[in-house]
Specification:
Elements lengths: L3 E12 L2 E12 L3 E6 L5 H8 L7 E6 L2 E3 L4 H6 L2 E4 L11 H6 L12 H15 L14 H14 L4 E5 L7 H16 L3 E5 L3 H7 L2 E6 L2 E7 L5 H9 L17 E11 L5 E11 L2 E6 L6 H9 L4 E8 L2 E2 L5 H6 L2 E4 L3 H5 L6 H5 L10 E2 L2 E2 L1 H14 L17 H14 L4 E5 L7 H16 L3 E6 L2 H7 L2 E6 L2 E7 L5 H8 L12
Parallel strand pairs: 3-8, 3-9, 6-7, 7-8, 13-20, 13-21, 16-19, 19-20
Antiparallel strand pairs: 1-2, 1-4, 4-5, 9-10, 11-12, 11-14, 14-15, 17-18, 21-22
This protein binds adenosine-5'-triphosphate.
Length: 511
Amino acid sequence: MAEYVVEMRDIVKDFPGLRANDHITLQLKKGEVHALLGENGAGKSTLMSILFGLYRADEGQILVKGKEVQITNPNVANELGIGMVHQHFKLVHNFTVTENIVLGLEPRRGVTMDLKSAAARIAELSRQYGLEVDPNAKIEEISVGMQQRVEILKMLYRDAEVLIFDEPTAVLTPMEIRELIAIMKNLINEGKSIILITHKLKEIKEVADRCTIIRRGRHIATVDVAATSEQEMAEMMVGHEISFVIDKEEKTPGDPVLQIEDLSVKNSHGSLGLRDFSLTVRGGEIVGIAGVDGNGQSELVEAITGLRRAEKGKILLNGEEITHETIARRIRRGVSHIPEDRQKRGLVLDYTVEENMVLEVYSQRPFSKHGLLNKRAIHDYAAKIADDYDVRAGEGVLSRAGSLSGGNQQKAIIGREIEKQPVLLIAVQPTRGLDVGSIEYIHKRIVEQRNLGRAVLLVSLELDEVLQLSDRIVAINAGQVIGEVLAKDTDENEVGLMMAGVGKDGGGVER
Ligand SMILES: Nc1ncnc2c1ncn2[C@@H]1O[C@H](COP(=O)(O)OP(=O)(O)OP(=O)(O)O)[C@@H](O)[C@H]1O
């Protein structure tokens, strides 16, 4: 028997102006979790897209169970037993779980298209792998974590032997992450093999057997995870030493910049997602909102930025009411927003990076004068942001935003929002999908904003991030403030309890 279930040998892939994969070799043993680690833009997704048949390699070979194969499209990958869980799920929202799983399957050798027996087989797979999910629920009714399980079941239903997970935990809550890790272990026990792309070293330590590290398209090393520290892996990835601590001096906050008084906001289902919510963020202060996803964070941010209407209550910026102002006016007043969904709200993917950097300011000087665009000024401004925030792309700022790697898209948005010199910076999951080096850098820039006297509202599902960055932490549960603490006086346990709905005095919230 072949030693490897999948072997990618000397893979080369070129894009305009850039070699994304430069002779990379990746060997997956049967029954292992093999992590793929690399900085943003290192070439991980490209390599996996080649394995999954979305791109063709310019050079190199792919072997499955020792035999060379040509993976010309994803159907061939499926036939070869290779399945992928993408970062952005590809599910049809008004279809049921079962319908989504059988969707696109051609009737073939013994695989039935009868929905009832399909549901039974799905229920059986769920039990076997510990993937609890209701086969009759509609996708739009289930959580993101559940949707991910549907994607996993979809692969198992197609008899996948090799499963590729592309940053699967980026969209999950801490609890869901623990469940996913248990699921991965079940998959391995049942004989599957896994390639895991993740930036989280803790997760690699927890589930992976081996780790292949790539940097700028090149293979750096493949290591035994148990024998290698997180620090060592991180340093191999970036090519130099890094520190994980944020330097943050004590600072006395200034005047209130953002004041929210008794704000109530409806959610997409028409009920109140935020209720009688009050909050103050002062200049020179980072206030972190801690909470489990879906407890009113989106409604809060959308009400402040003007994307959602307030039913009741007031929002003030520097003492002036903005509750019913247009989005554009709020931006002009100095509200910056790093949005949660970088592809929907953050960037226009078909525009160049340059155009994206001036989306909100192109009509102002120096970018236009007498109605004419000053292309030089736009280019220089964008190039400076790309340089400062290490936004890497094949054709520089002339690259299409959609061609950037996920992490580089994120860095571009952060750069744009901070360089607007905001009065109030709202950062939602600012480091989602970023590598450890970039996280360190972005955290420094956010602290710098605070040191410059700006007000920062941080919304993050990463408790570590909230604890490290914030001066003050406000816990949100069921659309209400459930507790407030100074970051220096609290810890993971206390904030975790508040997030679960247990108030500081030990009481719960009324629902
Ligand atoms: N379709 C494309 N056209 C042009 N360039 C591309 C294309 N896809 C990827 N690239 C470039 O190839 C490089 C590698 O990107 P890739 O998405 O593989 O990185 P990654 O390691 O997955 O990064 P991240 O951690 O940020 O997701 C990037 O510089 C990216 O801009």
